[in-house]
Design a protein that fits this description.
The protein is of the alpha+beta class and 444 residues long. The chain has 3 domains: 39-131 and 138-180, no CATH class; 196-309, no CATH class; 315-443, no CATH class. It contains 11 helices and 21 strands. It has helices at 17-36, 52-55, 156-159, 196-215, 226-250, 256-274, 292-309, 337-340, 353-363, 372-377, 410-417; strands at 44-50, 59-60, 62-68, 74-77, 87-88, 96-103, 111-113, 123-131, 140-148, 151-153, 162-174, 177-180, 315-318, 321-324, 327-331, 341-348, 364-368, 385-388, 401-405, 420-425, 433-440. It has a 5-stranded antiparallel sheet. It has a 4-stranded antiparallel sheet with strand order 10-6-11-12. Strand 3 and strand 4 form a beta hairpin. Helix 4 packs antiparallel against helix 5 (226-250), helix 4 (196-215) packs parallel to helix 7 (292-309) and helix 5 runs antiparallel to helix 6. The chain starts with 16 loop residues before the first helix and ends with a strand. 27% of the residues are buried. This is Type VI secretion system baseplate subunit TssK. InterPro entries: T6SS_TssK. It comes from Caulobacter flavus.
């Protein structure tokens, strides 16, 4: 057992190397005990870069890596003499994790010269010229320094008796080249060097898409029906968690346990809203710092499904495009929408609302796009527009008059056969803006 006790410095003490070595152990233990209490799972990589050129030759090496080992030992190296030597990955390797390793601490831990490098030595000794930075003549002297005896390992023989930190997983070796398992996520202190950062950015992008869609239609109105209320509460949840994900994506050094806490809270909110207000029947996997892929993959997939399900709202807008002067069009991707939904036209212009309500049904002609020109040339009636209050599912806009489209006439039947709206504007309508909305019948 390693003792981290403080050296009892007394007057007249005969100094030996063991005194200074023990003082180093005491300071290391003190630092580890202090930092370990600051956060859960205080170990993992903060920087990791695999040498892909070596991998194509069946060798595994790291060009850069930094972090903290599970025993609390910090480490860092870049391309140079301090990085561990590359290892050969046996051709029969299948689904094995490659580890960065260090001999475990022991009461009799050894130092060794770098050129000898015994496997059980925790530190390696090397020579370095060091200047006296306080002297007026900063002469350099040769000093023996020590560094961690970090090695890479994949076989049981290479891993026995050492502290381990997974850095990659080999799926197999194909034609002499290493095929890595890209799903593997090494234990980390910061999500940035791993796929976890991509998880957060992906869900943030999906959430922002749905926020933009829901923001134009979700209303805080109990009379709007259950679907509209759920849309509004979903918008609240996505706005809240979207801001959290934005912060996490933009912040350095985010621990994966913090991302896990965010994801499971987001999962609880969205499950209650989008799955008939049920509790989460299958709980997410518990956090496992050594198996981050198995921890996060099911949660990320479930969140992606829940956010995608929001794409089936109870209300939506069909964009009206200006085809040519006075003529607009709006394509209906799903013809069943014309049978199962009510439709509203929102109109605003540089006229008083009363004038818009009075003139729009006579001067705005709407019907199937294939027949709209014939309707105009022959002065035929289009689909009847009836002034109406905006349905509770639609957020009412100031200055807009709303009209419900009559779905009982022959003109609507023609539209069902050729599902593209055509709209013609007659007369003078300065500042004209048009919106075409659909609302589910069962949501009204």
């Amino acid at each position: 057992m390693v003792s981290d006790g403080r050296v009892a410095w007394r007057e007249g003490l005969f100094l030996r190397p063991q005194h200074f070595q023990q003082q180093d152990r005491h300071h290391d233990g003190l630092l580890h005990a202090r930092t370990e209490a600051l956060r859960p799972y205080p170990w993992g990589v903060t920087r990791l870069k695999i040498d892909r050129e070596l991998a194509s030759q069946g060798l595994f090496g790291l060009t850069s890596c930094a972090g903290v080992l599970e025993d609390g030992t910090p480490f860092a190296f870049d391309d140079g003499d301090t990085r561990p030597a590359a290892i050969v990955i046996p051709p029969d390797t299948r689904d094995r994790v490659i580890y960065l390793t260090l001999p475990r601490r022991s009461a009799g831990e050894r130092l060794a010269r770098a050129d000898l490098a015994p496997n059980d030595a925790r530190y390696l000794v090397y020579d370095r010229q060091v200047s006296d930075t306080y002297a007026s003549d900063p002469r350099a002297e040769d000093l023996e320094l020590s560094r961690l005896n970090l090695c890479l390992g994949v076989s049981d023989e290479q891993l026995t008796g050492r502290t381990l930190l997974g850095v990659a997983r080999v799926r197999e070796v194909l034609n002499g080249a290493i095929d890595f398992d890209d799903a593997y996520i090494p234990p980390c202190l910061d999500i940035q060097p791993t796929r976890l950062a991509g998880y957060a950015e992906h869900l943030l992008a999906r959430a922002n898409q749905q926020i933009a869609s829901l923001a134009t239609m979700a209303v805080a109105n109990i009379d709007a029906g259950r679907d509209a209320l759920v849309d509004f509460l979903t918008l609240q949840a996505l706005n809240r968690w979207g801001q959290v994900l934005t912060h996490l994506s933009a912040t350095r050094s985010i621990h994966p346990e913090r991302l896990y806490e965010t994801f499971v809270a987001m999962l609880g909110d969205l499950s209650g809203l989008r799955e008939n207000a049920r509790r989460v029947e299958t709980p997410p996997p518990p956090y496992d710092h050594k198996h981050l892929a198995e921890t996060f993959e099911p949660i990320h997939t479930r969140l992606d499904i829940l956010i995608s399900a929001i794409s089936n709202p109870s209300v939506g807008e069909l964009p009206l495009r200006l085809i040519e002067p006075s003529y607009y069009g709006a394509h209906v991707k799903d013809p069943t929408m014309l049978r199962n939904n009510a439709f509203y036209l929102a109109v605003t212009a540089d006229h008083p609302l009363d004038e818009i309500r009075h003139h729009a049904p006579m001067e705005l002609k709407i019907g199937a796009a294939a027949q709209i020109r014939e309707m105009v040339h022959r002065s035929l009636h289009g689909i009847r527009l009836s002034p109406a209050s905006p349905p509770p599912q639609i957020r009412p806009l100031s200055g807009y008059a709303y009209f419900e489209l009559d779905r009982t006439g022959a003109e609507w039947a023609d539209l069902v056969k050729s599902p593209t709206f055509g709209l013609h504007v007659a007369g003078q309508w300065p500042g004209l803006k048009l919106q075409l909305w659909w609302v589910k019948k069962d949501a009204q």
